[in-house]
Amino acid sequence: MKDLSPQSLGQIRMTKKERENRKALARAPRPKIASTIVLTHGPKENPRILMGQRSSKHDFMPSVYVFPGGRVDRGDSYIDYEDDLSPRTQAIMEAAYSPRKARAVVLASVRETYEETSLLLGKPSQVIRNHRDPSWDAFREAGLKPSLDGIEVFGRAITPPHRHKRFDAWFFLKALDTPDLPKIEDSAELLNVGWFTFDEIWKLELQRATQMMLKVLQQFMAYDRPPAHIFYSHAKYGKFLTDTFPSR
After folding, report:
1. CATH number at residue 192
2. Which of 131, 147, 154, 167 has its CA 20 to 30 A from that of 36?
């Protein structure tokens, strides 16, 4: 595997505020489980990809472009959904979590996509149960259940300990087959939301972790048949490690 460690992608980009926040902590914070999804539209060789720019007011990775995503919430474990995870993604996710929690991690990316871009990844349903969590109100009001159809896991990255916020982030891919690009909107979380080609993305302001996962994404999309493991970046005893999950 190519060297895709954060160290291979240039200097760490941290604001003064981020450094101060980390210095104020006695020890590295425990990573929170997070979920990120890459949505593509168009030909596999040159798709358009949904991204947005984090607000400059964020105290973690401000102003950079990212994929939709965020922390997994408790309600994500109980929401009614359509379709099942693919056998491959299910096996990988359940190597880390219970079946319910594995689904919740994926569903969190669906919820975050709506919250950050107004794009609903769902299917119509006459009966919608368990939509008591207000985070999912938009799906209920639209008569939709969030859908797991076509979502594949392709990477995992744990924020290194020099950050004041840390996430155990899972990265998913879903190719959209709508005739036209779905409509999207800016939000309080993401500005300048848009559909970008790979060439356009590399010209955007990116955090090096996003650069790393873009390279992983390009490798993953080149597979005719995705492998039964994913790229995994994490730190141990102060050293960056890039290997696979589950271990081969």
Report:
1. 3.90.79.10
2. 131
